[in-house]
């Protein structure tokens, strides 16, 4: 049975025109390793190359802003200008040379954009996600401009050699804010029903597919549900996934907003639940959500959140709850998680302690760091334990 479980993790998987060597995905995490001009750095290339060498099948490179207005952190990898293409090319090539599929996550920060003092954030409706920060509502004409920016960013990713892109439609960035009844209070064709709230994301997918190629892979990261009033219900989350599939999505990456939030950021957010597992969160808190989404679509479903126990991750695949499993903070601690599992060295894995060191640094605009891995850019050096 142990070998059968392990085989489930390391079977290849095809999505759209691409085949991943296994079912292990590196989930996107903003690192703040980019330059102050949003350019890819040597550190960034080394960081992602090391995790590709560590054996994951697919890497979703951290959220990349589609416009200068769409940035969510101070040192992000830009995709909003052609000047970024050489750096993106180097990054995609480093990942692929080590055997992994390279996807670039595209994002517009919406109500969570990084704004200069005195400048308002922007969203689908004037509903605050951050404490005391009420965004202005974008017009339908501005939605068309956002769609154009997503397409141009996807074209740059394609020119740079990325195997595909992921649309960030979770965690209350712009596309997510459009999907959620909590943040979307519009009364026009972009608000109200699930179909209307999904319209903007569908238009972005359709625009990318018609401009680039129907075969160019587009993943979408969404919430399956939200513990908010009003929030996205699991029934609606299933409908959203199905509608996105009909629009051309090639995979659904399942997050949720149902977990307690980090106490260190409670004073800065208006929403009192989140997507990030804490130290006392049980393993696989979103697995059942992924299973529910999988029942609603015929495209691959990616499960995420506290899946660093390879037996739990494998069991999710064997039981049909998902098609791929995504690891995030675990790959900061130990980029060789997949290789160690496959080689029978799982006892040597350095597991994430969910201490929030990485997240706290990122939220402060600092380069991400790990309390257990001092060298994120090369062979890992661990603290004595």
Contiguous runs where pLDDT drops below 50 for at least 5 residues: 381-385
> For the CA atoms, what is the radius of gyration?
19 Å
CATH top level assignment: Alpha Beta
State the share of residues found in helices, binned by percent.
Answer: 25-40%
Taking all residues together, what is the mean pLDDT? 93
Order the strands across the largest sheet as they lie in space: 3-4-5-8-9-10-13-14
Structural class: alpha/beta
Number of continuous helical runs = 12
Order of helices and strands: HEEEHEHEEEHEHHEHEEEHEHEHHH
Q: End-to-end span in angstroms?
A: 32 Å
CATH 4th-level superfamily = Aldolase class I
Strand content: 15-25%
DSSP summary, beta strand count? 14
- Number of domains in the coordinates? 1
CATH architectural grouping: Alpha-Beta Barrel
Biggest beta-sheet profile: 8 strands, parallel, barrel
Write a compact overview of the structure shown:
The chain has about 375 residues and is an alpha/beta fold.
Question: What do you see in this structure?
Answer:
The protein is of the alpha/beta class and 385 residues long. It has one domain: Aldolase class I (TIM Barrel), CATH 3.20.20. The chain is built from twelve helices and 14 strands. It has helices at 2-10, 42-53, 85-97, 140-159, 174-179, 194-211, 234-247, 287-294, 310-318, 330-333, 337-342, 357-363, and strands at residues 13-15, 18-20, 24-26, 58-65, 101-107, 122-123, 136-137, 164-169, 218-226, 251-257, 259-260, 273-274, 301-304, 324-327. An eight-stranded parallel beta barrel has the order 3-4-5-8-9-10-13-14, surrounded by seven helices. The longest helix is centred in the middle third of the chain and has 20 residues, at 140-159. 51% of the residues are buried.
């Amino acid at each position: 049975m142990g070998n059968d479980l392990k085989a489930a993790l390391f079977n290849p998987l095809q999505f759209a025109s691409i085949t991943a060597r296994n079912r292990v995905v590196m989930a996107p995490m903003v690192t703040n390793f980019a330059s102050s001009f949003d350019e890819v750095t040597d550190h960034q290339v080394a960081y992602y190359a090391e995790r590709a060498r560590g054996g994951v099948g697919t890497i979703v490179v951290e959220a990349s802003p589609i416009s200068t207005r769409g940035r969510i952190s101070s040192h992000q990898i830009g995709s909003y200008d052609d000047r970024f293409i050489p750096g993106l090319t180097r990054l995609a090539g480093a990942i692929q040379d080590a055997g992994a599929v390279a996807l670039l996550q595209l994002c517009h920060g919406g109500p969570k954009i990084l704004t200069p003092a005195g400048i308002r954030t922007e969203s689908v409706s004037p509903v605050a996600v951050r404490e005391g920060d009420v965004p202005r509502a974008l017009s339908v004409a501005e939605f068309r401009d956002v769609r154009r920016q997503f397409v141009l960013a996807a074209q740059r990713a394609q020119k740079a050699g990325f195997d595909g892109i992921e649309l960030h439609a979770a965690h209350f960035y712009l596309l997510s804010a459009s999907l959620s009844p909590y943040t979307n209070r519009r009364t026009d064709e972009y608000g109200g029903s699930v179909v209307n709230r999904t319209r903007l994301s569908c238009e972005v997918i359709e625009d990318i597919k018609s401009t680039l190629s129907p075969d160019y892979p587009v993943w979408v990261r969404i919430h399956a549900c939200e513990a908010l009033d009003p929030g996205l219900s699991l029934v609606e989350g299933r409908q959203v996934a199905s509608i996105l599939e009909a629009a051309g999505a090639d995979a659904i990456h399942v997050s949720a907003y149902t977990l307690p939030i980090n106490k260190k950021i409670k004073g800065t957010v208006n929403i009192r639940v989140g997507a990030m597992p804490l130290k006392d969160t049980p393993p696989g808190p979103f697995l059942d959500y992924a299973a529910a989404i999988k029942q609603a679509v015929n495209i691959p479903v990616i499960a995420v959140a506290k899946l660093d126990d390879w037996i739990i991750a494998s069991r999710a695949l064997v039981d049909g709850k998902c098609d791929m499993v995504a690891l995030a903070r675990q790959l900061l601690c130990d980029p060789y998680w997949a290789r160690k599992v496959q080689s029978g060295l799982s006892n040597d894995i350095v597991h994430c302690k969910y201490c929030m060191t990485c997240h706290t640094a990122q939220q402060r605009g600092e380069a991400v760091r790990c309390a257990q891995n001092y060298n994120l850019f090369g062979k890992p050096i661990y603290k004595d334990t």
